[in-house]
């Protein structure tokens, strides 16, 4: 578990090995890295397309944004694909954190819980969106689905941030070749993002500022994890 170190001995600095690495830099790339990276890029795109909504009880604003959004259904389809790739890649990468480690297993379990929650959330929204009409009953149904979806989304992300924190703890416990900053950043960014969810749920208006500031470092950590997996430096 950890980052690969160069082999010692007389072959350590030979050019043929370097040429082979340059000819095929992704030969030892881990497929989990592609899942995480592609999911992260698509999540950014879906977030840009989605109206900024943080309060599950501000139904008037939510319905107004829905009526004036051009890509609402397409954006939710994109988010479903993106978050499924991202969380599946994170869950599958547990073996690179620490093998036979309960903390790593629990972290992966949190990723799967988050994935299940998001599939339920987005599937329910995609089910109700196409059949919405102008009747008051339909609006009430949409409002209920929206409140459920946004509040459950906070729960889903909280689980993923706990998972990242657990990965950081597993790396620390394994005593592998990970740099200290990499495992420490997983722990602290995961905690920061988790407390950001709590602060947002206590005062939803803070979410416009709190969510980007607190979730950003943890999200960037997952991107860096993907880069390490794609570079073949993790084993």
From TrEMBL:
<feature type="transmembrane region" description="Helical">
    <location>
        <begin position="206"/>
        <end position="230"/>
    </location>
</feature>
<feature type="transmembrane region" description="Helical">
    <location>
        <begin position="72"/>
        <end position="92"/>
    </location>
</feature>
<feature type="transmembrane region" description="Helical">
    <location>
        <begin position="144"/>
        <end position="169"/>
    </location>
</feature>
<keyword id="KW-0472">Membrane</keyword>
<feature type="transmembrane region" description="Helical">
    <location>
        <begin position="112"/>
        <end position="132"/>
    </location>
</feature>
<protein>
    <submittedName>
        <fullName>Uncharacterized protein</fullName>
    </submittedName>
</protein>
<keyword id="KW-1133">Transmembrane helix</keyword>
<keyword id="KW-0812">Transmembrane</keyword>
<feature type="transmembrane region" description="Helical">
    <location>
        <begin position="181"/>
        <end position="200"/>
    </location>
</feature>
């Amino acid at each position: 578990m950890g980052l690969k170190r160069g082999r010692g001995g007389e072959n350590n600095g030979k050019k043929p090995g370097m040429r082979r690495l340059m000819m095929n830099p992704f030969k030892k790339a881990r497929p989990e890295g592609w899942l995480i990276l592609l999911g992260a890029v698509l999540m950014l795109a879906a977030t840009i397309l989605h109206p900024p909504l943080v309060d599950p009880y501000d139904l008037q604003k939510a319905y107004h944004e829905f009526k004036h959004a051009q890509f609402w259904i397409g954006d939710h389809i994109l988010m479903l694909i993106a978050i499924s790739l991202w969380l599946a890649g994170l869950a599958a990468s547990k073996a690179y954190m620490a093998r036979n480690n309960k903390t790593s297993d629990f972290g992966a379990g949190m990723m799967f819980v988050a994935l299940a929650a998001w599939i339920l959330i987005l599937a329910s929204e995609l089910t109700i969106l196409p059949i919405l009409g102008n009747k008051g009953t339909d609006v009430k149904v949409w409002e209920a689905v929206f409140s459920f979806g946004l509040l459950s989304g906070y729960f889903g992300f909280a689980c993923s941030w706990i998972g990242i924190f657990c990965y950081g703890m597993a790396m620390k416990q394994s005593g592998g070749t990970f740099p200290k900053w990499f495992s420490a950043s997983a722990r602290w960014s995961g905690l920061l993002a988790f407390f950001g969810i709590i602060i947002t749920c206590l005062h939803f208006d803070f979410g416009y500022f709190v969510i980007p500031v607190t979730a950003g470092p943890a999200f960037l950590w997952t991107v860096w994890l993907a880069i390490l997996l794609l570079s073949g430096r993790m084993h």
